Amino acid sequence: MSSVSPIQIPSRLPLLLTHEGVLLPGSTMRTSVDSARNLQLVRNRLLKGTSLQSTILGVIPNTPDPASDAQDLPPLHRIGTAALAVQVVGSNWPKPHYTLLITGLCRFQIVQVLKEKPYPIAEVEQLDRLEEFPSTCKMREELGELSEQFYKYAVQILDAVSLEERFKMTIPLLVRQIEGLKLLQKTRKPKQDDDKRVIAIRPIRRITHISGTLEDEDEDEDNDDIVMLEKKIQTSSMPEQAHKVCVKEIKRLKKMPQSMPEYALTRNYLELMVELPWNKSTTDRLDIRAARILLDNDHYAMEKLKKRVLEYLAVRQLKNNLKGPILCFVGPPGVGKTSVGRSVAKTLGREFHRIALGGVCDQSDIRGHRRTYVGSMPGRIINGLKTVGVNNPVFLLDEVDKLGKSLQGDPAAALLEVLDPEQNHNFTDHYLNVAFDLSQVLFIATANTTATIPAALLDRMEIIQVPGYTQEEKIEIAHRHLIPKQLEQHGLTPQQIQIPQVTTLDIITRYTREAGVRSLDRKLGAICRAVAVKVAEGQHKDAKLDRSDVTEREGCREHILEDEKPESISDTTDLALPPEMPILIDFHALKDILGPPMYEMEVSQRLSQPGVAIGLAWTPLGGEIMFVEASRMDGEGQLTLTGQLGDVMKESAHLAISWLRSNAKKYQLTNAFGSFDLLDNTDIHLHFPAGAVTKDGPSAGVTIVTCLASLFSGRLVRSDVAMTGEITLRGLVLPVGGIKDKVLAAHRAGLKQVIIPRRNEKDLEGIPGNVRQDLSFVTASCLDEVLNAAFDGGFTVKTRPGLLNSKL
To answer: Which CDD domains did the record assign (predicted)?
Structure first.
């Protein structure tokens, strides 16, 4: 029999401190290297070394001590194993670390630690030689497996040098393990599942080297969870295709070790599949009368929107399998687009889920991530269905006009499948990878403007305009909804505060200028906070008066009247007695609380000289009035435009000056030198105030013409007239959009007459009746008619027929 060559290890070895197990001679193990000392050892010794000697390490079992300083070398076990580094794998995630594959060669004893930093190096003495016991290699491998389970026993085995001592320590352990397995087989009963007999054998108890807790209970729980998961899959009502996928995945899960990363991913996927509402739905409440009452109670005005919801209910009552419509509410902020979506769900008796799309720039937010990626998850649509637990909820896709676009894809393109009634019955999320039926979901999108919505997506939605409110509507909304809500939030009662409708009108006209009611709500909240201070201070002083037995105090009534001297409602110097309730909020109290009015009617002052006209503009925040100012000076015939204007508005200005120059003789317009060539030695400057706000669009064309006509004729434009309309080079007036919002803006500004294109006359039907009564409308088809209506007494020399001046 040939002899085995002895293994001679170096007398000096770098020490690798490991707490993941005990390495025995002849066994192999993987260990993670992430401490500073071990990282230095791998980098300086293994990665830079080229000889075989540089790959031999001294492996010392080490139990980390939380109380010890990480900078100091911990106490070392006196016996270790010399090992050969077979493989080194590095990674930077989640932090820099290496994984070593090491094989035990022989044992050694530490004689002296020679160096501690950057990694420990010790003088060692070899304890055994492999040629002494050539037949014990298999035993070493078995002991290596045992060392993973019994840390403290493995250390004792490591310390045992002679073969006899090692046998004496290992045989009792093996006998105990055999007895444990026999007892487990007697006490464990087989489980019956779908006529298949599955005997679950309890795994070997593993005692960890840190906590010493048993892990077999967790494994039992996992096995029970898998059985329950399989039962849920069998009893679920998912489609056949989804059921096949789940059965396939559960089979893979049973064969998969729990330590694999894919185990958790597969289990999460199956749990999502059984939680999705494949066939679970709510029953719609189809009482149209009750729905009408509920919508009227929750929202004032919005007649067009309510009408569309009632139409859906009526058709749904006649046809049970009606596909859910895809509606898009478009209007300025604060008009109730989001809240009306919640009311629609309440009316139908459906679950409601809101998905905020503002700023979303990844198509995976809609379609989900593929399961091949780490941290993958379903998209917001599938996740929302899981949250509500039914397949026919009301989904509100909020701010659909503010979707972004990036290298991760276009979420607006991903929504095409979701919002297409012909496709969404077969919607496939990347995470699920099976089809889900979205045809019963009622999708409601909200947007401030349709300009930023892609045309293909816009084509799939039914647009319902939600314009701003009139002053009368705001007053009703304030007293029906906003004031009661603010009183409840601030702990006040109607017996403590009164806000008359006249005061509400002052807040609307002088402190807010908006299409919605958000600013109005904030102002009402400020009033309630100020009154809450008065009430709280009054209660405190009332308590002090009770303690001092003061029983009669009269003549100190605190009531804010307009004819009295205004006093700050926050001034507490005169509060000798609690205020008399209720506290009345009038104009003086409003000024004390909210400060001076933010908006004053400045229209007449602005139009006190020629060269100024009032236009109407549409913005995503609603309609606005817009002043256009013009001046002329000696120069070289240049036209200057200021006010953050877009290209379309600049072109409208050039169109206006060209039309006036070509019709200067007709209207007897001359420059400062008496020439009909308006730009002869003359420069013109057009300015649109609020210069920090970007402006664009063709609707300012008629306003620019009127402003320039006023400048060159020296006549004043009527101060109560606003106008809108696109112009052509031949003097025609073309239709524009946003008529209702623009008319409401003119009404808020206190104007009396509005000039609009004749082809927009149909849009006046949507104007509330009280607004039509307060305003006079002029519909014009050419610029002659516009100028005739904009100036007192008319403007043209030859009046053309067709001017329509009617009070609707």
So the answer is: RecA-like_Lon
